[in-house]
Design goal:
It contains 16 helices and ten strands. It is an alpha/beta fold.
Amino acid sequence: MLATLVACVALVGAINVFIDPLGIFGSPRIAGLSATKPYLDHHRELTRWQAARRLCPSAGIFGNSRAEIGFDPEHPAFAAQGLSAFNHSIPGSAVSTALRQFGWLQTAGCTPKIALIGVEFYDFLGSNKAAPLPPADAPPAIDGKVLAETVFSITGLRDSAKTTALQRSRYAATLTERGFNPLDNYIAEVENSGHYILFRQRADENVRNWGRKAKAIQPAEGQSIDQQALDALLADIQQSGGKARLVIYPYHAEIRLMQARLGLADLFNDWKRMVVAIAARHPGVEVWDFSGIGPETLEAIPAPGDRKTHLQYFWEAGHFKRALGNKVIARVMGEADADAKFGILLTPNNVESVIAADRKQLDALLTTPSPLLTEVKDVTDKRR
């Protein structure tokens, strides 16, 4: 009886290591069986760390879900400069996570030559209390707890079954070997429900989340963890001889209008000033702003019930597609054919003029009747 149980557990473990749903063991990726890995919502940090450690990339993408979904590490701009990129981004993570990840890469001898770092206004929003920066911790390891949860478990077996099944799936939720989440499963969401539902659900969620936070981006005295983490990360990159490119994400105009209607527009501008000021303390750091109003961020939201229209640049207001992320990467990496009208390099010398021009564009949207403004008013008025 005991021998049978042990044999069954061993068999389950062998299957799970062989299929390797999380990709943490480096098992061979077999076409039609385990080549494509599922997007799983557990052990995210371990998954990315193990992959990055094996690949030892020379370029890193850091950020939250916006970067994870929008920035493809296989963009040709990296290879054109002799770089191999990896997307370390984790949903819901802040700059402190990027600082931690960069430290692990340094320790492993895999310090990136260039780092693209998505900086998020909403991570800083509500930062009205000073707090010390937590000490650095060790990288996640494959220990007994991980083995129990991923190898010798029903959860692990279920993940293995999901892995083999998605090899034949048309629109599966996947994570590439280089940490990119193409969000192909949202194609099916759009076909079933339409883009409008995705936009509206995200808008309602954003209003709720923003309303829970204090209207502050920094403490009255001292610094927030996010401020310290960004400063420390840029210092580490500079000391390593690498290059840092800070990216202010391209938000859909709906988000910018919602900010204004909820009294957050001035804070957003103050936050930009803060980011530029922190970057200025580290020579060579560039701050790229893609949050401005333009043709891309004004992409029309399909009407309710429209399940045929697939947008070019956005899944919903907060998450942009690879097509827009490609334009960001091309611009930041200095590609010759990059769209010079998309995004602007912020400096201490131009930040005020950029903010002033952006405010005029935003005010024009707020005072000109449009389907977008009607939608934004409907979302924000229900919160008041």
